[in-house]
């Protein structure tokens, strides 16, 4: 009788796992489909509107598929050299911020945390502002993203070094250090803004700090694609550990999780992909806050699904925000960081109210 019951339980467990896998696969497929539609819309829409069918044909041809499609030379240049790299950069940046925000919220067990809270974004911003203020961009334009990336790494390294030297190595101390680093870096940037030598330099600093995707090229795609993709995959591998961390560090340790290794790895990977994203886009807020909330409401708190889904959701969110920035006030183009704040801030306030009423987010 016990053997029969055991067989029935095994069969039931396999059925539940199979159903869960199919549901996860369906949700991922939906997000991939949404990402494809967002890419097509992002490439098609703008001051010059290109039919969706022509856009799909040109993208397929650019990838290498033998398709027969008619297009003008002007449309080909717009699609392949102007809009497609911009949309891909937007997708990579949005995906990086989405998955980094999810990882940070899981690590700190706080749904209001995002990568900027630990000084990574501020460090990258300070590096970029230094490149503009000291004229390094006149030597080589690539010194701006390189400086931003180096700034992000220095900020994370400094914060971890101070945290390890402190007596209280807990999550609250880490967040407080991040807040202090953000305040210090912001003060340094304000000094540079106040002492800018000319109006053009000041406008460049402010424009970059608002976040944008203008004039992004295939070189920018090549700069960030590998670190963001590999970093996002690396974070997704910690889905099980982040699930266990939701129960507390004591439960995680009893379950065999190496807390120190997991925490350092998640923080390092978050610094890598956030620094790479900010290096080419400037500071874009609310993506790492809002997207994980939306995905969590739709699909639950399982980080094994939540991490890759947030990467896809973040990519869709930022591409759509970039479309709005180009279309809402033509011929004026708004910064995508401004659009994300306009969309994300009210949505985030709404999510906080839902959380305060006891609704799971």
Automatic annotation (TrEMBL):
It comes from the Bacteria. SUPFAM superfamilies: ABC transporter involved in vitamin B12 uptake, BtuC. The chain crosses the membrane at residues 28-50, 84-104, 116-136, 142-162, 174-194, 220-238, 266-299, 305-325, 332-353. CDD domains: TM_ABC_iron-siderophores_like. Keywords: Cell membrane, Membrane, Transmembrane, Transmembrane helix, Transport. Pfam families: FecCD (PF01032). Its main location: membrane. It is a multi-pass membrane protein. It is found in: Cell membrane. Belongs to the binding-protein-dependent transport system permease family. FecCD subfamily. This is Iron ABC transporter permease. It comes from Sporosarcina oncorhynchi.
